[in-house]
Structures are given as structure tokens and as C-alpha cells.
Amino acid sequence: MSKPSLPKGTRDFSPVEMVKRNYIFETIKKVFRKYGYAEIQTPSMENLATLTGKYGDEGDKLIFKILNSGDFLGKVDEQLLAARNSQLTTSQVSEKALRYDLTVPFARYVVMHQNEISFPFKRFQIQPVWRADRPQKGRYREFYQCDADVVGSASLLNEAEFVLIYREALINLGLKDFTIKINNRKILSGIAEIIGKPELIVDMTVAIDKLDKIGFEGVTNELIERGFTQADIDQLKPVILLEGSNAEKLESLKQVLATSTLGLKGIEEIETVFNYVSRLTTHNLQPVTQLELDITLARGLNYYTGCIFEVKTNEVAMGSIGGGGRYDDLTGMFGLKDLTGVGISFGADRIYDVLEELSLFPVSAAQGTKVLISNFDAAAEVYALPILQQLRSHDIAAELYPAAAKLKKQLGYADDKKIPYVILIGEDEMKSGKLTLKDMQSGAQQQLAIAEIVGQLAG
């Protein structure tokens, strides 16, 4: 029998890890709810046709397909099988796939439930997604996304509030140095327009989105491979390498895009978002210094049409820990036309790795059971049962050791589970009613009545 193993890019999560993961989820959920977002869930699998064509050619290759049940090859045309071309046979053997993200399933949900929901519809969703990517640090094949989207509203106030949601959630998680990057696909389309290559907008954005990974020379080579000339690149260079404050970048872009109505519209939208953010933080918050206009931010997903976001921490070498943007008429793919939307996502798995590396998880996030009650014999067990219930009735996570055992074994159990307190109940404690509360970190012991213990542990 072979040793059990996990598929590459997937992980088990221990109880300690789950407490930390739930700390991240609950912190983000709290902020989502504060801004008026309500939770939904969708199935892990979708029809393959629902997902295909929504993420571009590169994204489609990363969708995990699910083989049809039964004899999935039985109905496949013999000529297709003989061609040995997986792309031609995929639709014949697979009708379903694991979801690639949460946005497209959300769009499908909105279309199917359009008569049951009120617009604008604001939802958040925290569930796993799957991508057939090459596993590496911070990149997994199965990972959780924490998404918030609003559909049915064209207001750029939504984009501004997403900036504030990102900032508030990350600060609440303990991160101090991070950047919320913003751009607009209309600006990118305007740039492609002024160099006379509007039909190559996707090729251009995919290439320049890799600037921080492959450098300008690498981007240049990729652009040439995708059909751009050296003259095009000479025009693009000052835009791609744009520097200065947000205001200075916008002024430079206005000059570059002076002949592009679409590009100027993108600049106007960015300025509107900046103004909203400024007004929303005038009275009780510090200015959002983390917000940065980054013209190289392109995000290869085909469906973004307006503002786009990406969040990176500057404290740890890690990819983006969040991203999103405006997607006009995404639901049109499913028959519901002219319904604009905008959404963001937190990369919970990467955020976990960042908090772990920076030791930012609070002690409470690593703690499950708060107190263990010892069990030395049948009489002590009977005595402990109402005490156990009293502790739990005050929302104190408590356990009774399940069988009589030596003290060393019980204390070892508490140490292994990082339980901070142990209540010792022996003959003297049962006679006096004063229980021994042991602090596992300091080793200090106190003789206390149960009411006093409840008051101390519930504080």
C-alpha cells in the first residue's frame, strides 16, 4: 500500500491553523458587513460553459475540468479520439468544472435570482477556488477567496469604499506597510488607441502587467512577440515608466491621452475615486497614503472595463494579496444585459502566510480551549460536570479531561493544545469548594471559588 499524500498545491489545516484562518475570515467579514455587504455561497462546481471564455485564453487553461460520470469516453466521436487533441475532446468528456474564482459564479447567481434580489445588490462570499497553476510560495491550486461585489450601481462611490474596505481590513489584521494600486482599463485602452493598436489591447495589458516580474526589457520583448513595433514601444515607454505623485501622473496622462476620449474618461473616473476617498476620510481618518495610481496594473482578466485594483504588502516578499475592478455587463454573458458591477477579492491564503511570517496573529487567534478541568477519579468527574457547564454557559471554552489519568499526562495534553489554564479538582478542592486554577504559562496557582474563576476567565 502506497503512503497517503496530497495533490500538489493543496494542504491540510490543523486546528491551530483553522483558528488563525477563521481569525482572518472573521476580521474581513466584519468590515464587509460594516459597509452593507451580505453573505451568499455558491456550489464548488459550475457548468464548464459557465466558466469558459470569462478569463481569457491563459485563464481558461487553468480551469480544473471534471470528467463526466460513468463511461465518459463512450460517446466521444472516434475521429476526435484518434486526433489525440485534448482541446477538441474536452467538451465531449467534461460538462462541469471547479470554480476558478467567485466573480463569475456570482454573476450567474445574480442572473438566476434576479427576481428575488434588490438592486444595487451587495454581497460577500468566502469560499475555496481552484486553479491548475504551478504551485510555489504564496500560490496554491486550492485556495480561499474573500470577495465583495456590488451589481446594479454605476456609482464610483463603490470603488472608493472598496479602497477603504481594503485599508480598514488590512490595518485590523495588523499590516502597516501595504499599497493599494489602482488603474483604469479605459486609460489602457486609450494608450492602445493613440499608438494605433486598439485591437491589441489585451496583448498589451497582459505584457505590461508583468513589468514588476520581468522588467521593461522583458515587457519589450513580449510586446514585440505580440505584434508591436519598436516605434510603438518608444511611445509606450514614458507611459509604462510613469513616475511622480498621483496628481503628477494624472497630469502627464492627460497630455499623453489628449486625443483619446476613452482615455480621458478613464482619467476622470480615477480622479472621481480619489475625490470620494478624500472626502470620506476628511473628518475621522488619516489620508489614504497607501493608494497609488499604477499605470502598469493591467490584470489579465478580460472582463474588467473600468477601475482595477491590486493590493501588495511591502513587508514580505509576496505576490498580490488582493485585487478586483469594475466589470460592465458581465451578467450579459448569461442573458442579463447592461448590469454594471464592481468587486474586490482578498487572497486569504497569502494573507495568512504574511501574518505568520510577521508574527501578527494575536495570542487569542492561536487559542481554542481556554481551560481544562482535571479528572483524577469518578468522584472528581461527577463534581466537575456542573462546573464544566457553568464555564461554557459564560462562553468560556472549556474541556473536562475525558478519563481519569495522572496529572503529568493531563498537563501534557493542555500543553500540546496550548490551553492556558487548568482547574485541578482533588479531594481538598471538593471539600472546601475552592478550586485550584493553574496558569500554564507562569506555573502560578490560585485557590478560587468557581464564581471567581468565571470572573477571571471571562474577562
Q: Would you identify the CATH architecture of the largest domain?
A: 2-Layer Sandwich
Low-confidence residue ranges: none
Secondary structure tally, helices: 18
Broad structural category: alpha+beta
Biggest sheet features: 8 strands, mixed
How many β-strand stretches?
16
Concise summary:
The chain is of the alpha+beta class and 459 residues long.
How would you characterize the overall build of this protein?
This protein is an alpha+beta fold. Helix content is 42%, strand content 17%. It folds into 2 domains: 307 residues, Bira Bifunctional Protein, Domain 2 (BirA Bifunctional Protein, domain 2, 2-Layer Sandwich), CATH 3.30.930; 90 residues, Rossmann fold (3-Layer(aba) Sandwich), CATH 3.40.50. The mean pLDDT is 89.
Features of this protein?
single chain; 459 residues; alpha+beta; BirA Bifunctional Protein, domain 2; Rossmann fold; 8-stranded mixed β-sheet; 5-stranded mixed β-sheet; 16 strands; 17% strand
What is the fold's blueprint, element by element?
Blueprint: H1 15-34, E1 38-39, E2 45-47, H2 48-51, H3 56-60, E3 65-66, H4 78-83, H5 86-93, E4 96-98, H6 103-112, E5 121-130, E6 142-151, H7 157-172, E7 178-184, H8 185-194, H9 201-208, H10 211-225, H11 230-240, H12 246-256, H13 261-280, E8 291-293, E9 307-313, E10 322-326, E11 341-347, H14 348-357, E12 371-373, H15 378-393, E13 398-400, H16 407-416, E14 421-424, H17 427-432, E15 435-439, E16 445-448, H18 450-457
Parallel strand pairs: 1-5, 7-8, 12-13, 12-14
Antiparallel strand pairs: 2-4, 3-4, 5-6, 6-11, 7-9, 9-10, 10-11, 14-15, 15-16
Helix pairs in contact: 1-7, 1-14, 7-13, 8-13, 9-10, 10-11
